[in-house]
Amino acid sequence: MEIDLSEKVALVTGAAGGIGAAVARTLAASGAAVVVTDLEARAEDAGKLVAEIERDGGQAEFRALDVSEESAWQAVMQHVAETYGGLDVLVNNAGVVLVKPVEEVSLEEFQWITGINVGGAFLGVRHALPVMKKRAAARPAGGSIINFSSAMGIKGYPYGSMYSLTKGAIRLFSKSIALEFADLGYNIRVNSIHPGLVDTAMVEQESEELSALGAMGTSTPDEMRQAFQALNPLGRLGTPQELANAVLFLASDLSSFVTGSEMTVDGGETAA
Ligand SMILES: NC(=O)c1ccc[n+]([C@@H]2O[C@H](COP(=O)([O-])OP(=O)(O)OC[C@H]3O[C@@H](n4cnc5c(N)ncnc54)[C@H](O)[C@@H]3O)[C@@H](O)[C@H]2O)c1
């Protein structure tokens, strides 16, 4: 069965590169009109992505959005309402990582990572709801919110306590609002996605910073990358496209009975 998103409008955060870019490309290739958002500083990469999507016959546009800024969410959602008349799919993908022993983490760093990883998803849900609700009520398949958590939102890992704290929060935030929206009859499903190690700039950063700390007996980024690959039973890093495939399912009507779930896409890392 071919997945058809041609009636849907989707917004993806942190979509200038990495997993978010693959998600935007994949949703657009299935027919969705995609609002590609990321920091203003990433406008050039985002612009290239939009041009690529349009060249392939898809529909996309870039809007600058720092997910930790409430006024930016308000402006983007007003634009979405005026331009598209509503929103069907929200993908809260933007995220940052902090690699540090907890005893060295400052309050400013704690506030920075929670502001983006948790605050960003909360503000996204808060400001997307008015734009999603009417449309979801009018359509049998309803709306879909997909929040990026992590394998690190299920299991603990050394030097990643701040990141795990934010990703664990996303897991239960997603389940709670999935139940709440069902109870309120909103017809909006909410699920969290839990990637294992995926080959993006984030893993590059983690390889450098963890090996500098000597984590898992490593001393170079290459050694850390090898150690990462050995962390899951499939023995490799995931690709951004493999995550985009899971988002495509959760965004589509094929997942109409799926809400409150935590979808692991991690090569078996959390099963072990
Ligand atoms: N790569 C992995 O191994 C991995 C594993 C588990 C979970 N994740 C999660 O998947 C999601 C995507 O990760 P990725 O690997 O593609 O990372 P990435 O670093 O390649 O991309 C993250 C994107 O978020 C954007 N961003 C950062 N701060 C932002 C802000 N304040 N507002 C808006 N955008 C902002 C960045 O500009 C970037 O485009 C993140 O939520 C991440 O935590 C990634």
TrEMBL record:
GO function terms (MF aspect): glucose 1-dehydrogenase [NAD(P)+] activity
Swiss-Prot/TrEMBL keywords: Oxidoreductase
Family matches, as SUPFAM superfamilies: NAD(P)-binding Rossmann-fold domains (SSF51735)
Enzyme Commission number(s) of this protein: 1.1.1.47
A Pfam match: adh_short_C2
Domain of life: Bacteria
Enzyme class: oxidoreductase
Similarity-based family: Belongs to the short-chain dehydrogenases/reductases (SDR) family.
NCBIfam families the record matches: PRK07231.1
Protein name per its UniProtKB record: Glucose 1-dehydrogenase
Organism per entry: Elongatibacter sediminis
